[in-house]
Amino acid sequence: MARTTSAASPTICCTASSSTSAPFVPPRVPACSPAAGDTSGHRFRCSALFLDSVDAALAAHSAPTVEDLSIFLPFNAPRVSACRVAPWLLFASQRVMGTLRVLVPLQMSYFTKSEAEEEEEEVELPACAGAKRIFLRLDERWRLRLPPARLFAALTHLEIRSARVEGSELSALVTTWCPRLKDLYLFVTLCPVSDISIRTESLESLCCRVYNTSRIEVIAPKLERLAVGDIQSFVISAPELAELDWDSHVYDPRRHVFADVGLDRRLRSLKINRDSIAAPLLQRFDSVDELDLDISISQEISGYENFLNKTKKLPKCKTLSVSVQHSQHGLLPIMQHLLKSCSTTRKISVTLNTIGVCGWVSFCPLHCVCRLVENRKIDDIALSSLEEVEVSNFTISQEEVEFIQQLSRCNASVLKRIVIYYKRHPTTSLTKEVCQEACQKVRNKCRQNLKVEFYVYSRM
């Protein structure tokens, strides 16, 4: 394998699939040093030189097949025209027998309004009959054409990021022309607004963030893993679905239909990201092996009450992972409420994401219900199955230490291990004495027969 890197760190890698093939000659990128005060022009010159070197390297490569073709340009590189990338895709369609990766700069957010309104460019994805894995990160202003009757016979993994596509072309590609596709990752915008309909016998994993779609239909009898972003309406038929990653701001059972998902009301994994917690989705399942919740609660009393209502009934789970994002309310009342649903839970992982350098501090109104004494006690909660607790981003604030103390003394007869990852602020000197003092402060609050593991890392 050969690799070349320009001053802006773009990269091209190419691996021949046969030892008898002609060796790949790395493209030579001429030296390019910026003149004083000319960093912008320097970037454009280096980018142009690199693009020319890629074209030359592919033209000179004589091996009939290529196992891996990877072309990377960094995020901050100047914009690349679609017409420069089209020959690379054509080369890949004729030679690649393994993996194709083409990653160009993502700069849509940096464009001025006049630039963003420029006429879009088109680039076609030719049929890559031998490619098994395709990864594309394109310009958001490009329309990626997916012509019909183009067979991707060997393709098992397809990932498309930051491009405009037509819904009908995308539907046809996945449904008809990718008979072996197992993994599909879509981060695209439909142009124009339209529906998508995917029917596939082979798909096992789907990650779907599709904008400008009015409705998505997926019929996939072998689908096991599904990640969904903000989609206005969908119907998913996936009787084998075991893992669901929900990252949408709204869950409406009338518009978000799981036709035959979780008929036994069980999942292997359910992840619900912050601002996405929806009671109907949580209550749809009785049992989840791994439940992962990102929790963000606004400062107002209504924010805390909304959290209580959404999470008043959790599915039974073996592992509960909770990431509390910059909460304005007390840690103890938040965890007390969640732990009431954890009678069958074996492991609890808590990630604390606090504001500032002082650890956990409550900024909610003084009359907030989370401040009531009865809502800050967890030592009387029955956690008869709990074996292990893991706490990350620990800062030894009073609230956090009290949480560990109460948790270690709760009704959890089989709890044997608490693992703490202490987040040291850069201004705190990292000495053996400091670490021992922090560790001992926590150990003194825990019952004697409990194993407490304490790890220290520095926050950058």
TrEMBL record:
Highest taxon of source: Eukaryota
SUPFAM superfamilies per UniProt: RNI-like
Pfam families assigned: LRR_At5g56370
InterPro entries per record: FBL15-like, LRR_dom_sf, LRR_FXL15/At3g58940/PEG3-like
Gene3D superfamilies recorded: Ribonuclease Inhibitor
F-box/LRR-repeat protein 15/At3g58940/PEG3-like LRR domain: residues covered: 145-241
Name the record gives this protein: F-box/LRR-repeat protein 15/At3g58940/PEG3-like LRR domain-containing protein
